[in-house]
Amino acid sequence: MSGDIEFTLEAQSREDVGKGASRRLRREKKVPAVVYGGGKDAQSLTLNHNEVWRKLQFEAFFSHIITLEIDGKQKQQAIVRDLQRHPFKPLIGHMDFQRIVADQELQVRVPLHYMNEEESVGVRMNGGEISHLESEVLVGCLPKHLPEYIEVDLANLDVGDTLHMSDIQLPEGVRLVDLDHGEEYDRGIVSCHMPRVTTEEDLEVEEPEGEEAAEAGEEAGEGEEASGDESGEESGKKSGDSESEEG
Hints:
Blueprint: E1 7-13, H1 19-27, E2 30-37, E3 40-48, H2 49-56, E4 66-70, E5 74-85, E6 92-99, E7 106-115, H3 121-124, E8 129-132, E9 136-141, E10 150-153, E11 162-164, E12 175-176, E13 188-193, H4 200-203, H5 210-246
Parallel strand pairs: 1-4, 2-6, 7-10
Antiparallel strand pairs: 1-3, 2-3, 4-5, 5-6, 7-9, 8-13, 9-12, 11-13
């Protein structure tokens, strides 16, 4: 399941750290990063933003061993531990990598791939719908056993059935970390149920009539006007505060 995909990122080591240095790097379309673990000191890195962004389009990037080529001469294998994105722009703010050691177990979140949904008994024979309750699971394994994803076959899932974490067929050498904590952590991951039928009662909305409607309209108008005044004052305060802080 790990496939033949390989990910390599070119990186440069850096000495300048801190918020100011990170801002300068982002303006230059670079990504500040750090790699740590494996019995070595943490190392600050710089990555090319566009190269990283292209790699992020692959789901496997987040559950795959990545080779970091540092300064064109040093190679370290690692996994992505954290990635910070801009709240609304297509920009990466920072990345954390953890070095891997061949004989040390990793704990990584791996995506679930649900197979045979449309061919499942519940959908094909009984008109049911499939609901995904979990999209990924936390696995523990040695680096050589790390799966790119885990398949879950839904062919036999019928209406009213729920598959739990303990029902997952795991690859060799892989375990589910949550199940180490007891049966109460054996969560459902996918279920099949009948579609909800919308009735006329669901669509009915009571509307006020006559004087009640007029009073409701007047109250709404007064409420909006008051709200507008208050929000305007508050907006002005916030804008002023923001400007003073930036200045």
